[in-house]
């Protein structure tokens, strides 16, 4: 029998196909760059074909490589389904579980829930990856992740979801700002000319701009932060105002800063924290159990 591609090689191929960057692809696969490079060369040798065009400045898929992406995703997903089927027959929430989480959730939710999760499910080995929603969903579809903890609204196909919590938006501004005269906020009351948001491509930015229908008036040409912690520092230094999810404020992101906040009067001024997994998985019941655990933990009042 001629040599065949290994699952490891296909995972490395998909990671490089998504990122077109050896270092970032290797980091996503938790291997060294030299190991990933060797794996790709082995795969090309097995197939007798070149899958990537490489120069000193760029990495691009060949036409054959582009055709292979869909097939490779399907193979990896099917193997993961086999693993899921075997895992579903054992104890729930035990063994390896690979979960992606977006940066506007991870630092604020995980420190709160992980200690209890470890106590209640000591056999669970939870591996976490923090990236933006689009990248995480691609990794979920390709089998690199089992679950994604994300925020809706966001267009996501071929996934099952479990809503964990409703996370309200709050307007944040320096103390003494005119917005402090209001008990509640509306998008119209926001100082939109001074509104600071996260960088483009972040789902929280899209959700906030959609709430106020601000569009390019806010997006175009303004300095945009890469994290919520940077964002609040900018507001604290008098550079503008912002909108934050309540989860981050409950976690103490404003502690020690000269900032104030107000809730929005509209119930639509929020995002829905959601756990998502592939529809094809056999571990749906187990993942709903995790969703229920997270929902119950978040329903418990935060202790100061």
Description:
The protein has 304 residues and is α+β, with helices and mostly antiparallel strands. 43% of the residues lie in helices and 20% in strands. It is built from eleven helices and nine strands. The protein has helices at 7-19, 22-29, 33-47, 63-88, 106-120, 133-141, 203-212, 216-219, 228-236, 246-250, 284-299, and strands at 52-54, 59-61, 95-101, 124-130, 147-152, 159-174, 242-245, 259-263, 270-278. The strands form two sheets. Strands 3, 4, 5, 6, 7, 8 and 9 form a seven-stranded mixed beta sheet that branches. The chain has a two-stranded antiparallel sheet with strand order 1-2. The radius of gyration is 22 Å and the shape is globular. The protein starts with 6 loop residues before the first helix and ends in a 5-residue tail after the last helix. The relative contact order is 0.14.
The name of the CATH architecture of the largest domain is 3-Layer(aba) Sandwich
- State the share of residues found in helices, binned by percent: 40-55%
* Strand residues, percent: 15-25%
Distance between the termini: 64 Å
Structural class: alpha+beta
Report the strand count. Answer: 9
Tally of individual helices: 11
Mean of residue pLDDT values: 86
Oligomer: single chain
Envelope shape:
globular
Order of helices and strands: HHHEEHEHEHEEHHHEHEEH
Q: Segments where pLDDT lies below 50 for 5+ residues?
A: none
Global Rg:
22 Å
Highest CATH level, the class of the largest domain: Alpha Beta
Biggest sheet, in brief?
A: 7 strands, mixed
Q: Provide the CATH topology of the largest domain.
A: D-Maltodextrin-Binding Protein, domain 2
Domain count: 2
């Amino acid at each position: 029998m001629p040599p065949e591609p290994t699952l490891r090689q296909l995972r490395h191929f998909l990671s490089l196909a998504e990122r077109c960057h050896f270092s970032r692809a290797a980091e996503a696969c938790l291997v060294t760059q030299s190991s990933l490079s060797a794996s790709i060369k082995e795969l090309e040798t097995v197939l007798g074909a070149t899958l990537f065009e490489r120069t000193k400045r760029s990495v691009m898929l060949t036409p054959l490589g582009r055709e292979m992406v869909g097939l490779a995703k399907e193979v990896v997903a099917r193997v993961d389904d086999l693993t899921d089927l075997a895992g579903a027959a054992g104890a729930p929430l035990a063994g390896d579980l690979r979960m992606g989480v977006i940066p506007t959730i991870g630092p604020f939710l995980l420190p709160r829930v992980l200690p209890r999760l470890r106590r209640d499910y000591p056999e669970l080995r939870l591996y976490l990856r923090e990236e933006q929603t689009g990248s995480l969903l691609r990794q979920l579809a390709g089998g690199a992740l089992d679950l994604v903890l994300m925020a809706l609204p966001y267009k996501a196909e071929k996934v099952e979801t479990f809503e964990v919590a409703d996370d309200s938006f709050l307007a944040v501004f320096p103390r003494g700002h005119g917005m402090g005269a209001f008990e509640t906020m509306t998008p119209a009351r926001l100082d939109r000319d001074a509104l600071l948001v996260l960088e483009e491509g972040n789902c929280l930015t899209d959700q906030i701009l959609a709430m106020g229908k601000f569009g390019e008036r806010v997006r175009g040409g303004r300095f945009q932060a890469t994290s919520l912690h940077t964002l609040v520092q900018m507001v604290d230094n008098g550079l503008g105002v912002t909108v934050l999810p309540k989860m981050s404020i409950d976690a103490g992101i404003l502690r020690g800063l000269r900032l104030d906040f107000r809730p929005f009067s509209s119930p639509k001024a929020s995002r829905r924290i959601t756990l998502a997994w592939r529809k094809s998985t056999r571990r749906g019941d187990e993942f709903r159990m995790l969703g229920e655990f997270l929902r119950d933990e978040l329903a418990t009042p935060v202790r100061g």
